[in-house]
Design brief:
Blueprint lengths: L6 E2 L8 E3 L7 E2 L14 H12 L29 H18 L3 H9 L4 H21 L4 H17 L6 H12 L2 H13 L1 H4 L5 H18 L6 H14 L31 H12 L22 H15 L7 H20 L5 H14 L15 H5 L2 H19 L13 H14 L5 H11 L42 H7 L5 H5 L10 H4 L1 H7 L15 H14 L14 H15 L11 H15 L3 H5 L5 H11 L3 H4 L7 H10 L3 H16 L5 H10 L3 H14 L1
Antiparallel strand pairs: 1-2, 2-3
Helix pairs in contact: 2-3, 2-4, 4-5, 4-6, 5-6, 6-9, 9-10, 12-13, 16-17, 27-30, 31-32
Length: about 725
């Protein structure tokens, strides 16, 4: 059954029929003269036929009229188009957000979401970075904001969302627009990231940008007022580019002709002659001895006048441009001036060594040394410069560099520049007089440039490495001898003998023959004798004033003497004073040095009298003598834990008591340190009598009684 509203007979010339709903039969017939509802040759029908003709066979039915076809999307849909304004706006917003959050994530998200090819998005982001930097510069933002944008661009290059040259373009824009004081801060950032610029990601893309940027900065800076900044730029370029970079080499050996040394060329304005005349007139009134060592006049057989001044500084023009020496007239002038200047160097007296040391000490104490790249050509400084050894060394070094160029083989030197035999002979004689093997490096540098600057890294050919024969590792049994001793063989008779002197290495190290440290008695025997007033040895001849002896004495005291680490209230100004005090203490503790055996009846009688006198001393006299080291050692063992109760009565400070407690945990060692500190404090008054009195006051009567008995027993 046909659907409702279907027209039949839609051909040309027919009125057309359609099925109705209300009429019997459901068919309406057009009245005569009535305009049909649908004419045959209509545009709608033609469109329908065209639409039906597009369907393939087996598709929609051809008999059904009026049904609308369903739209299907094409198989290959084209990607969305790139919009520059939208991408620029999106990237600008994301850049501001990334600067606030200090993170590159907003930029990464925006880069992935914006439609378009990768090159289009990278170029747009590069433009956005420059626009943001421009806005910050116009708004006079601080340098930190600009550096944050550049750092963001560096991270963008690392993530692959912008081109590798973007950070360098931003740096160039910033340095071109900012004043020099802010450029210093920006360049500090450039210096710190030199490792980043040398990486594979940035070096090839940014080395030309950095070179152009540094050259632009050098043109803006003043060499005299911004010397430090210029030096930093040169050092940065030296760190950035490799040594074999030809853009930084003077391959053609060109000279810096702009380095002109300015000096007084008008003889009428010179004051050298007047100066010496006035000095001679004033020197008539000065008596001998009134002038100090530093102000003493310098003796010279050649007077310093304007002619010498002019000839001396005229040589700088030849050092600046050595090519002049190949001309006959210029060479004669150079030869004449050089002979006079070198003669002055030979006859003019240098500064005194002591005066030079004083100058060095003044430079060390007065601050950093100021270095000037140019010579000072004032006439007033001429005599001081000639007497300065460093200044002479600079001039002689200039001579050596000039001679090396004249004799050396330089690749780009003209073939007409040839020395005569007479010139070569004079150069050789003069070079021998001043040469000190300081230009070997310069010769190697010239030969390297003449060879075309080959790479310093030499790769080894794969076939040049010889194959080493594999040696079998010897077994341990091969080192042992065949005899009953099983002597270890070291491959050499002498080594075998030394190794087998003692089978146990540790026992060999502990042998008494390896004890090289002297005893206190042996080392300080000479110093103790010199400290005795009866020997009448002057202070300057004493061993304690020898710095080498003092160093060894401190080492020995630290190892063998208990006095070295004891706190003391005495302050010593010098090491000899301290050692002299220690020698006096050791003289009281150590036994007297051995004396030569005396012969004769008179000597025997003197010894017997001294021995009787020593034995007949009363106990009171023994208690008035200073305590010895043995007495302190024995009494400290008995004092033990009661040392702290005795300390206040020996007039020891609380700080000294705390120091003794920190130094050792052994009560006997603490007691010994207390007595030694008391002995250092009291000196000759550290007698058993005073110690007995302090023990009695501290309530240690038993110890006082035992010390009294020991004193009486020893007497």
């Amino acid at each position: 059954m046909w659907p409702l509203g279907t027209c039949f007979g839609g051909g040309p010339g027919s009125a057309g029929l359609r099925v109705g709903r209300d009429r019997p039969g459901g068919v309406f017939q057009a009245k005569p003269g009535h305009r049909p509802a649908l004419r045959g040759p209509s545009r709608r029908h033609s469109r329908r036929r065209a639409r039906r003709s597009r369907f393939p066979p087996g598709g929609r039915g051809r008999g059904v009229i009026g049904a609308r076809p369903q739209r299907r999307p094409p198989a290959n849909m084209s990607p969305p188009l790139f919009s520059l304004p939208e991408a620029r706006l999106r990237f600008t917003t994301s850049t501001r957000e990334a600067l606030i959050n200090k993170s590159i994530k907003p930029l990464l998200n925006a880069f992935n979401q914006v439609p378009g090819s990768e090159n289009e998005k990278k170029c747009t982001l590069d433009q956005v970075f420059r626009v943001v930097v421009e806005e910050e510069i116009i708004n006079k933002a601080p340098c930190e904001n600009l550096l944050a944008i550049i750092s963001l661009a560096i991270n963008g290059v690392t993530e692959g969302i912008c081109t590798a040259s973007t950070p360098f373009v931003l740096l160039g824009d910033v340095l071109d627009c900012l004043p020099l004081d802010q450029c210093d801060k920006i360049f500090t950032f450039v210096e710190k990231n030199v490792a980043t610029w040398k990486s594979n990601t940035f070096y090839s893309a940014g080395k030309n940008y950095l070179l152009r940027m540094c050259n632009d900065l050098l043109r803006r800076l003043s060499k005299s007022q911004n010397t430090v900044f210029c030096g930093r730029i040169q050092l940065f370029l030296a760190r950035l580019f490799p040594l074999s970079e030809k853009s930084g080499l003077n391959l053609q050996s060109q000279f810096n002709l702009e380095n002109v040394t300015v000096f007084n060329t008008n003889e009428h304005e010179s004051t050298l002659g007047q100066k010496h005349t006035e000095e001679r007139e004033e020197g008539m009134d000065v008596e001998e001895g009134e002038m100090g060592d530093d102000e003493a006049p310098t003796s010279c057989s050649i007077p310093i006048d304007y002619n010498l001044y002019r000839k001396f500084w005229s040589l700088q023009d030849y050092f600046r441009n050595p090519v002049q020496c190949y001309e006959k007239v210029s060479w004669k002038t150079f030869l004449k001036y050089s002979e006079e200047v070198l003669a002055v160097f030979k006859s003019y007296k240098l500064d005194d060594t002591q005066a030079s040391r004083k100058k060095l000490e003044e430079l060390k104490t007065g601050g950093e040394h100021v270095y000037f790249a140019k010579f000072l050509t004032s006439e007033k400084l001429m005599d001081l410069q000639l007497s300065d050894s460093n200044f002479r060394r600079h001039i002689l070094l200039q001579y050596l560099i000039l001679f090396q160029y004249l004799k050396g083989q330089v690749k780009f030197k003209s073939s007409n520049y040839v020395l005569t035999d007479e010139q070569s002979l004079w150069i050789e004689d003069t070079t021998k007089a001043v040469y000190q093997h300081i230009l070997n490096t310069e010769e190697n540098w010239n030969s390297w440039k003449n060879e075309g600057c080959p790479s310093f890294v030499k790769e080894r050919p794969p076939d040049s490495k010889p194959m080493r024969p594999v040696r079998k590792r010897p077994a341990p049994e091969d080192f042992l001898g065949k005899g009953s001793n099983k002597k270890i063989l070291m491959g050499n008779e002498e080594l075998t003998r030394l190794w087998n002197l003692c089978p146990d290495n540790m026992e060999a190290c502990k042998s008494e023959s390896r004890e090289y440290m002297p005893t206190l008695e042996e080392f300080f025997e000479e110093a103790i004798e010199q400290a005795d007033p009866e020997n009448m040895v002057e202070n300057k001849y004493k061993a304690v004033n020898n710095s080498n002896y003092g160093w060894r004495a401190l080492r020995l005291l630290a190892r063998r003497s208990p006095h070295f680490f004891q706190p003391t209230n005495q302050q010593f100004k010098s090491l000899p004073e301290y050692l002299e005090n220690m020698v006096i203490k050791l003289a009281k503790e150590l036994p007297p040095p051995s004396e030569e055996i005396k012969t004769g009846e008179d000597d025997d009688e003197e010894d017997n009298d001294a021995l009787l006198k020593e034995n007949n001393e009363s106990p009171e006299a023994q208690r008035d003598k200073a305590m010895t080291g043995e007495q302190i050692e024995s009494f400290a063992n008995r004092l033990g834990e009661q040392w702290k109760a005795l300390a206040p009565y020996l007039e020891m400070k609380d700080s000294d008591i705390r120091q003794i407690e920190l130094d050792s945990e052994d009560v006997r060692m603490r007691a010994k340190q207390l007595l030694v500190a008391w002995q250092d404090q009291e000196g000759p008054h550290a007698t058993p009598e005073n110690l007995i009195t302090a023990l009695t006051k501290a309530g240690l009567g038993d110890l006082a009684e035992s010390l009294t008995n020991d004193t009486e027993g020893s007497s």
